[in-house]
Amino acid sequence: MAYWLMKSEPDEFSIDDLAAAPKQSTPWFGVRNYMARNYMRDHMRVGDGVLFYHSSCEVPGVYGLAEVSSTPYPDDSQFDKKSPYYDPKAKREEPRWMLVDVKLVKKTRVLSLEEMRTLPQLAEMVTLKRGNRLSITPVSAAEWKFITKHLK
DNA sequence: GCCAACGTTGGC
DNA sequence: GCCAACGTTGGC
């Protein structure tokens, strides 16, 4: 069992969009970074814990808990010429971008980035490291435990 | 809107 | 394989 933080811009897809989705689940499409892709393709397992994070918004931070709800499969948007995520170099026979489904566990109170930065228990979080921009980052078991407890 | 930091691209 | 130029992310 592993844990992850996954960023989404709420203007694009928010925690409420996830709550309103069929089965409260969504394919995590649009990731176009190899390291983030590799986390989904090679390391995520069904049931892994996910911190659902809003970025590029008024109050960036964790807005809820989710979980990985599928094994990896090709991101369809890479083949869709009308999608902003279209990748002309991707082929059906050789997909370049893989994703997993993410399912809502529960909305929580907001754990803002500002608050996260004040918590010594979270000082080593990958996503808080200077210069980190990755949309998917690993979360340690200790960090996960602390955050889920802290949000109760 | 700014800009620091980083990833990717492509010429050599 | 290097690395400058460029594009993107994301907090502020």
How would you sum up this structure, described in words?
With 152 residues, this protein is of the alpha+beta class. The protein has a single domain, classed as ph1033 like fold. 21% of the residues lie in helices and 28% in strands. The chain contains four helices and eight strands; from the N terminus they run E-H-E-H-E-E-E-E-E-H-E-H. The strands form two sheets. The chain has a six-stranded mixed β-sheet. The protein has a two-stranded antiparallel sheet with strand order 5-6. The protein starts with a strand and ends with a helix. It binds a DNA duplex (12 and 12 nucleotides) through loops.
Q: What is the assigned CATH homologous superfamily?
A: ph1033 like domains
CATH architecture: Roll
**What is the fold named in CATH at topology level?**
ph1033 like fold
Q: Going across the major beta sheet, what is the strand order?
A: 2-7-4-3-1-8
Write down the Rg.
Answer: 15 Å
State the helicity in percent bands.
10-25%
The largest β sheet comes out as: 6 strands, mixed
Give the end-to-end Cα distance, rounded to a whole number of Å: 21 Å
- Broad shape: globular
What's the pLDDT, averaged over the residues?
96
* Beta-strand percentage range: 25-35%
Question: Would you list the SSEs in sequence order as H and E?
Answer: EHEHEEEEEHEH
What is the number of E strands?
8
Domain EVE: 2-149
Keywords: Phosphoprotein
InterPro entries: 5hmC_binding (IPR052181), EVE_domain (IPR002740), PUA-like_sf (IPR015947), THYN1-like_EVE (IPR047197)
Protein name: EVE domain-containing protein
